[in-house]
Amino acid sequence: MSDPDRLSLHVPEPAVRPGGQPDFSNVKIPKAGSVPRPEIDVAPEEIRDLAYSIIRVLNRDGEAVGPWAGLLSDDELLAGLKHMMTLRAFDARMVMAQRQGKTSFYMQHLGEEAVSCAFRKALDKGDMNFPTYRQAGLLIADEYPMVEMMNQIFSNESDPLRGRQLPIMYSSKEHGFFTISGNLATQYVQAVGWAMASAIKNDTKIAAAWIGDGSTAESDFHSALVFASTYKAPVILNIVNNQWAISTFQGIARGGSGTFAARGLGFGIPALRVDGNDYLAVYAVAKWAAERARRNLGPTVIEYVTYRVGAHSTSDDPSAYRPKTESEAWPLGDPVLRLKKHLILRGAWSEERHTQAEAEIVDAVIQAQKQAEGHGTLHAGGRPSVRDIFEGVYAEMPPHIRRQRQKAGY
Amino acid sequence: MARMTMIEAVRSAMDVAMGRDDNVVVFGEDVGYFGGVFRCTQGLQAKYGKTRCFDAPISESGIVGTAIGMAAYGLKPCVEIQFADYMYPAYDQITQEAARIRYRSNGDFTCPIVLRMPTGGGIFGGQTHSQSPEALFTHVCGLKVVVPSNPYDAKGLLIASIEDPDPVMFLEPKRLYNGPFDGHHDRPVIPWSKHDLGEVPEGHYTIPIGKAEVRRKGSAVTVVAYGTMVHVALAAAEETGIDAEVIDLRSLLPLDLDAIVQSVEKTGRCVVVHEATLTSGFGGEIASLVQEHCFYHLEAPVVRVAGWDTPYPHAQEWDYFPGPARVGRALVEVMEA
Ligand SMILES: Cc1ncc(C[n+]2csc(CCOP(=O)(O)OP(=O)(O)O)c2C)c(N)n1
Ligand SMILES: [Mg+2]
Question: Could you write out the DSSP letters of every residue in A323-380?
Fold first, then answer.
């Protein structure tokens, strides 16, 4: 076997594979309320612990506890619950629409709704997100019209992106949502540049960068941290650790680093880990980082510890690489159910109102879908023009593209 | 002989190469336990162990950079880039390093690596799952560039690539993985099991890199194509009734210039077809070689059919894809010129 005088290659493996018993005993979950809340001008070296712990607000009983609690009103929390429920209902309908052939592809957020929905509420109008494909909650929580999202998903005649982009690769400057790229990690460093520009122009706006656990392996992630560190850019560097990158468990990207948040420490950037399934904790930590950025104190790395309950995309079947029941064993629970429980405990919500809200939300999603389908779906009804292929490559169409457009008959 | 899809043929090539040579290692994003998003490496980790077939972090520059290092040690890495569209972070490693290690060290170090990557459109993948970047490789001195059009060639060419002493870019047209595709997207899919070139030997064999193959003999016009476009060109010839000679290049670099010249000298006409964008595409290289070598045999200008000079759109995929109708029009055009 292993000869002590010989080398051998270490290849990390997840604790369990299909057929095995899901096991998250290696995920250390601190008690809710147990992690301190430092001042926003704290020196990064004084809070190194926060890169290895998990900031949590909601405890098992649904109470909000500890120094990160108490920031949101009943109404704000109810809005947050509805945003998450909307995102979930939206996802369910669109996954179904994909199966029905109304679009080619879809990616859902199941289990991760709190991250983008709560984060959006910590930003102001004018701030800019550089999202990946799994942050549609940023749009939902900013009241971007669902019909517009669906028009894009269906690539129909009202698609704001004229059929050019893969479904869910939205873009909305007005809603602080930078155009999504299919190439991972590229947007992470761009967010830093946007933030540097805001600082160059002595503006008040901040940026938010987004990346998944797996994609932190890309060079652009590391470039982003260098630039953010060097120029103290007003940017929040978000890492969504949902445990999986398609079939690859997070240990392959994390390697010997204890956590993804800890990547920030070597760059002298304050780094916090937060319970990504806890709406209140996500909001509190995002708000802390946003305040730091806005006060010119520089970047913050935040790792959201969560779990990708669904398949990677509609092209993926996770039962091939992880136990089917793994999501049920995930120790941080379900973000919607946890916030619901908290609101009921606060006396601001009830089972009946929840059931009613669910029905209303599903209805609103269905109405939006009907409206969007009236403008066509990928293979039926109204569609973008062939002209749209040729428009928008440049501000002004050069002669060679015009010739090609004419050759295409348009 | 067995019936294989192109996925199975590619997998069988790696299996054969790994079985014959301990130095062959296979890695890339999702290629280990899962066996790759297109399942090309399925079963290889179970058979050869975790240190010969494994998952890589999502870092294409890292994948190619480590492959180069392994090759310098003496291994023969055959790595997967999940989609050709994602090779760009590795472009520095490919063009400035892999391509020139032999030259700059005068053979002191070499770089026998293979980069497999699914290429081309036809699956509604939008602008980041549809690209054909072969010309970005053929413009680099020191790389070999291979694009198979069927399972039989895919296996023989991949084994040859793995055994090759220099870096090979191996582009697998993803729309051909499960069957020949002639561009008629509205017709039922034909599986490789119904095609002669889906017959693939189980064991070791190679197809030399740099040798083209005539897929259809003809006398009226030469069609130069590779990958998916070979099948589109064959359909266009049938549908127009024009007696085209269809050449499947199989390797773009080195290029089988003799096969092209021989054919064009016979037909006097030439159409070049590729899915990649037109401007500065590989078709431009072929067209100028044809005019250099066959000028006095030409009866008409060389015509190129290619993807439009735009990103690959999602919804308008079939308006973008240069299908049999567009190739057919070009055939008519050169015949009438
Ligand atoms: C540069 C690049 N390489 C590979 C891919 C293919 N790819 C798409 S998503 C994905 C996994 C990403 O995982 P993670 O960053 O954890 O995000 P998650 O999907 O879990 O949200 C991969 C490998 C890509 N889109 N871009
Ligand atoms: Mg992930």
Answer: -TTHHHH-TT--HHHHHHHHHHHHTS--HHHHHHHHHHHHHHHHHHHHHHHTT-BTTB
